Amino acid sequence: MSVRDDLAERVGVDLEAVDPLRVALYATLVGLVAFYLSPLESGLMTALKTEAEFATSPPFVPPTVEGFTLEPFGVAIDTLSSAILNSIMLAVPATVLSALFGSFAAYGLTNFEWRGQLGVVALFIAGIFIPYQAVLIPLSRLWAIVDTQSLLAPVLDITVFSAQVPVLGTVELATHPHYASIINLIITHTAYGIPITTLLFRGYYKKLSTEMLEAARLDGAGAFTVYRRIVLPLSMPMFAVTLIYQFTQVWNDLLFALIIIPSGSGPAAVATIALNELTGGIIQTFNTQMAGAFVAALPTLLVYVLFGDKFAKGVAGGT
Amino acid sequence: MADLTLDHVSKFFDDGGSKVVAVDDASVTIEDGEFLVLVGPSGCGKSTTLRMIAGLETVSEGEIRLGDDRMDNRPPRDRDIAMVFQSYALYPHMTVRGNMRFGLEESTDMADADIDELVEETSSMLGIADLLDRKPGELSGGQQQRVALGRAIVRDPEVFLMDEPLSNLDAKLRSQMRTELQRLQEDLGVTTVYVTHDQTEAMTMGDRIAILNDGELQQVATPLEAYHRPANRFVAGFIGEPSMNFFEMDVQGDELVGDAFSYELSAKSANAVEGSERVTLGIRPEDVEVIDDAAADHAYETTVDVVEPMGNENAVYLELGGERRFVATVGGMRRVEAGESVVARIPEDAVHLFDATTGETLQNRSLESADLDAPEANL
């Protein structure tokens, strides 16, 4: 019995049956996983180290017992929490609104026939390709002219954001006049998101059975009822796609926030702005920066986890 | 309840500037409770006609009336019609119950309990009561088809419209549903317009059939009348399987002369073809007699090319003058071999004569019992 056979017997694998191509394949895959995960891993390890430990060990090595600390996360959460709240107040409405309006527009542009329809579709598609940079100056001029706070004053005092929480009653989340600029950001992101969401929904609505929509009309449903009772429930996978896409887009945006929020900072600052400011002055505190990055990325991760299965369905085009 | 009338209805489509006629001046009255089958080859305008009745297409010219009420300017929801689609068009996110309730919820102000009762009742009539809480995706084709029917029936409309509702079913289920649908329509007594391209469905299901070709209504008649007294060559060729045999022939006095053979006419037939130079002689396969006696009148020596055994009968493709010319059907037990020489007789009383240019019928076959449902008036 050769050494090789002996080894094979002991580990219970028939070495003859191992395909070298397969070994190469798995080795490559493991290599790719390591390649893509290493920055994340290094970031996480850095965030868990004291500054002294960070200075003495390579970034990807786990912290030692003495060098381990959760303090960077504490600092990051303290610094970012109000900005993250702002980001949520921005991203949730902007995402939902652009998905909803995109869905409306796509329904009107796809499931009805009217003169000049294709021209309007072309305008929507053109809207996707307008670069952010091209609209920065018009945008800042627009929001300098429009005084959202006074406009909304008769219906809503937006200097106070409050929420009804069970047991606790009305909880004031925050108060500051600068919250008008969050509304401005919501409107801007909604408008900027509508073309792409419309296009996504349009592709989806084209595949809806015409006969089914006709059957609903014959059953006595008007255009809006058909939308509410048939089209909307059937678009849930596509809503997952647009929600994830738009949420990530809005959450990660820095450019519009810098332009629209006065002096690009202050109490209305969103997470991306606050993260930018999470540098330790002259001394770079890499551990808090890394912790901040993780904290700021958490909500998008959460959205992916929540809508992931629907997202996969929507991308695959299933109903 | 009332008659459904199509009064000189036309439909034009605009195809890049040029006008395409989909339906050309169709007039027909469907009586209360009648089952009318619209049949024709694909693209003949039968679906367009149905969709105009439904209100899914506008009417370019003419009127559609239900009783004395003009319908063609009303939206679909105000026409009191229900339609069964080829794809069933069920709402995939709703249960069977939801699908059947939808129309009642949207078009009536019935109480929830009444709707439920009606849905339960209709579903047990169709044998789908135990499927009420399932979704369409979990049902077989035949079950989905029943749900689609149930969705239409539960609304108790004035008119049922059916657009090839059986064509997605397998052959066995299709013939079963054919009889069931017919029985259901008889029980409910609702005026029904049924579109199909399948002439078997047309023959077996309809009280009357309306044959369409190129957007023009060719004939509206009972199935037997359309079979035995076709209004023109198109109807004669479309109805019947295997199709009628046709021969293009020149009229020369009392004789028809064709490429392969000549055919002597009786005085009556000669009278009918008078004034035409070219006619088409038609004979149904089952009327071609395969005999031994070559001396009989209107008998021709032929060679058997192919035999298609169907069990109950054999379809025999015959060659005359070296070319495959026509089909004869003989009894299934009769032995006919390919290559064999046989005598085919074309009896004059079974012969149809059509004008070769217009296709109009000049003379139909004579029938011993002339008691077809409709009189010979419109021939």
UniProtKB/TrEMBL annotation, chain A:
Give the residue spans that cross the bilayer.
Answer: 20-37, 88-110, 116-139, 151-169, 181-205, 226-248, 254-278, 290-307
Question: Does Transmembrane helix show up as a keyword for this record?
Answer: yes
Q: Name one GO biological process term.
A: transmembrane transport
State the PROSITE patterns in the record: ABC_TM1
* Gene Ontology cellular component list: plasma membrane
| Membrane topology qualifier | Multi-pass membrane protein
Compartments it resides in: Cell membrane; Membrane
**SUPFAM superfamilies registered for this protein in UniProt:** MetI-like
What family is this protein classified in?
Answer: Belongs to the binding-protein-dependent transport system permease family.
Q: Which PANTHER family match?
A: ABC TRANSPORTER PERMEASE PROTEIN (PTHR43879), GLUCOSE IMPORT SYSTEM PERMEASE PROTEIN GLCU (PTHR43879:SF1)
What name does the UniProt record give this protein? Sugar ABC transporter permease
Automatic annotation (TrEMBL), chain B:
Q: Which GO terms describe its cellular component?
A: ATP-binding cassette (ABC) transporter complex, substrate-binding subunit-containing
Instruction: Tell me which residues make up the ABC transporter domain.
Output: 4-239
Q: Which GO terms describe its biological process?
A: carbohydrate transport
Query: Mind telling me which PROSITE patterns this protein's record contains?
Result: ABC_TRANSPORTER_1, ABC_TRANSPORTER_2
Q: What is its main location?
A: membrane
- What Pfam families does this protein's entry cite? ABC_tran, TOBE_2
Q: How does it sit in the membrane?
A: Peripheral membrane protein
Keywords assigned by UniProt?
Answer: ATP-binding, Cell membrane, Membrane, Nucleotide-binding, Translocase, Transport
This enzyme catalyses: L-arabinose(out) + ATP + H2O = L-arabinose(in) + ADP + phosphate + H(+); D-xylose(out) + ATP + H2O = D-xylose(in) + ADP + phosphate + H(+)
What EC number is given for this enzyme?
Answer: 7.5.2.13
Question: What GO molecular functions are on record for this protein?
Answer: ABC-type transporter activity; ATP binding; ATP hydrolysis activity
Where does it localize? Cell membrane
> Family, per the entry?
Belongs to the ABC transporter superfamily. Carbohydrate uptake transporter-1 (CUT1) (TC 3.A.1.1) family.
Q: What does this protein do?
A: Part of the ABC transporter complex XacGHIJK involved in the uptake of xylose and arabinose. Responsible for energy coupling to the transport system.
How it assembles, according to the record, is: The complex is composed of two ATP-binding proteins (XacJ and XacK), two transmembrane proteins (XacH and XacI) and a solute-binding protein (XacG).
- Record-given protein name: ABC-type D-xylose/L-arabinose transporter
The record lists the organism as Haloferax gibbonsii (strain ATCC 33959 / DSM 4427 / JCM 8863 / NBRC 102184 / NCIMB 2188 / Ma 2.38)
